[in-house]
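= Tokenised fold =
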Amino acid sequence: MISQVLFVLVFGHLLTFGSNKHGQLGVGDYRKRLHLVKIGGELTGKQVLNVACGDGYTVAATSDNEVYSWGNGENGRLGAKYDGKGPNSMCTAYPRPVFGSLHDVPNLAARHWHTIIIAEKVLNQKTIRGRISSPSCK
């Protein structure tokens, strides 16, 4: 089955379907979806402009210059620190904001473990420190 497929609708809402093994659909659980479902959580009411899918994770940029990530956080691919406890401790099944606010995010890309975000400037920078690479996401 396909890992994840996302569609950005004209008003910036996200629809998705796929395997969801790592929470990469962003719907709050790890169950596969065979039909389109809407992504909510912290993205509710926000206009998504760009979205990219990596290896079991997803990133999205909104019109209010925020970047969100969800899914498999192994090796730091979500840009967030994890405590490394529990079977899904490296995963998040809901969109979570990462970084500070970015001014003008015209594009972002994700492939395998890497994400590239193009932004004019960082408005409120946060630095990620600590252990972020193990255990693995189940």
